[in-house]
Amino acid sequence: MYFSELKKLDKQYIANTYNRSELAAVSGFGAECADFSEIRYIDFSSGIGVNSLGFTDKGWVDAVKEQLDKLGHISNLYYTQPQVALAKALCERTGMSRVFFANSGAEANEGAIKTARKYASDKYGGERYEIITLENSFHGRTVTTLAATGQDAFHKNFGPFTPGFVHANANDADDLISKVSDKTCAIMIECIQGEGGVIPLQKCFIKAIAEVCRERDILLITDEVQTGVGRTGKFLCGQHFGVKPDIVTLAKGLGGGLPIGAVLFSEKTKDTLGFGDHATTFGGNPIVCAGAMRVVEAIDGKFLDEVVEKGAYIEEVLLKMRGVKSVGGKGLMLGIELDEPLSSAETASECLKNGLLILTAKHKLRMLPPLIIGKKEIDAGLKILQRVLCEILDRPEETENERDGHI
Fold first, then answer.
1. In 10 A of CB 19, how many CB atoms?
2. Among 34, 71, 112, 211, which residue carries the largest CB count within 10 Å?
């Protein structure tokens, strides 16, 4: 099938909810993929933080194939070994106590929200139901997780939303504490706001949140959908900040390419959900869990040290680039602020034309490369980015008449 035909059929038969870029990926290996013409692209996106081990990691492929030959699906009315093995591994790696498996980050966050409200209802009655989230946060696209999301741009046309969410200013402890009330059951945060522009929360701010949660028996929920599973150089990003949440949500990088979500419960919350309180048809699917187990096993201490080293190297090179104003984030989750008049959207588009996949987050470029990316691919990708930045900056400035099409 030719690319032009594929685009036509896509537009005809798939809901037009994505403004797709000019690439049809056909195959991939490691940190590179190829299109119909066998043109290769370096991947600084990993499917928006999903392909932790890159494309077609042999161990991951073997684990998935092996499970395919055994058991593809059976309902959660029965036990399966891959689900139990993965839950045990996640608890051992994180210090949490139990796991509920879902299919996505939004579903995991829904599960966390339900758990927080049930915990408070069981202990204090139905009047304690509000959850404080942060301005500029992103927690999903369901009606409830959109209500939790602190960005007005996502709220247009979909109301009314699930009530019971209060938004506080990020990195402003006084504002957040002022919004805590007798109705507050939980505070939900991303330690690094990903979709909001790769903005890390301050350690003192997270510590203040943990303290007020402890003092008032409010649950602390950390949304690690994008930051978790080694992305920032720790298995959980929250481990950088020295706090232990009551509930953690995971997705994206956990599956290594297959859809999965997970809600992790501490000792305090592990018994909150009982029989019939929450359920899923596909969550904890044996095939998906087998692939996720390969990811968890691969991300050991040495692997995480290498993620930190790669991130530090990339940041060092970026900060020397013409057109780069600042770099923020941790590990292999980096946000690049560009000098004016550079546009993140235009820069990402031009990078694609030159063989590099890179993301945006608001006005920033966002880098989420596969955690296994090597120095060769890093250097090649950064070279493309620098060349694109220089080409855009060196373009002759258009006159007003040229912009209006008069010349």
1. 5
2. 112
